[in-house]
Design brief:
CATH architecture: Up-down Bundle
Number of domains: 1
Number of strands: 0
Strand content: under 5%
Number of helices: 5
Largest sheet: none
Order of helices and strands: HHHHH
Shape: elongated
Radius of gyration: 17 Å
CATH superfamily: Membrane associated eicosanoid/glutathione metabolism-like domain
Helix content: over 70%
C-alpha cells in the first residue's frame, strides 16, 4: 500500500480522536442526558477547553477532505513519489501536534503547525498535478 494511503488511514483515526475529544468535553459540560438527547435546546456557550476542541475539530474537517483528494489524485493517477510520501507524513505529524496545541490554547505555534500541515498537503497535491 502506498505511504500516502497509509497516512490517510491514520488521518481517519485522528478524525475519530477529534470527534471523541470534542464530544467528551461537551458532555462534561452539558451532561450525559444532553449527549443522549436530540440536542434541540439552546445551551450556554462552551467552556474554553470544549470550545477549543470543537474549533480544532471543525478546522480538521475543513482541511481533511482536501488531503483526501490530494492523496487520491496522487495514488489513482500513479503519481506518488518520495515527495508526496514525505508531504503526507508531514501533514499527519503536524495535525497530530495541532490538536493538543489548540486544546491547551497555544496561539502562534498552533498557527505555524497548521501552516506546516498545509505545506504537507501541497507537497502531495502539486507534484501529483505537475508530474
Amino acid at each position: 500500500m502506498p505511504t500516502e494511503l497509509w497516512v490517510l488511514g491514520w488521518g481517519c483515526i485522528l478524525a475519530l480522536v477529534h470527534i471523541f475529544a470534542a464530544v467528551r468535553a461537551k458532555t462534561r459540560q452539558y451532561g450525559t442526558k444532553w449527549n443522549m438527547s436530540a440536542r434541540d435546546e439552546a445551551l450556554p456557550p462552551l467552556q474554553p477547553l470544549a470550545g477549543r476542541l470543537a474549533r480544532a475539530q471543525a478546522n480538521y474537517f475543513e482541511t481533511f477532505p482536501i488531503m483526501i483528494a490530494a492523496v487520491l489524485i496522487a495514488v489513482v493517477g500513479d503519481r506518488t513519489s518520495d515527495v508526496t510520501a514525505a508531504g503526507a507524513g508531514i501533514w499527519l505529524a503536524a495535525r497530530i501536534v495541532y490538536l493538543p496545541l489548540y486544546a491547551v490554547g497555544i496561539p502562534v505555534v498552533r498557527t505555524i503547525c497548521f501552516l506546516v500541515s498545509v505545506a504537507g498537503i501541497l507537497m502531495v497535491l502539486v507534484p501529483a498535478l505537475l508530474h
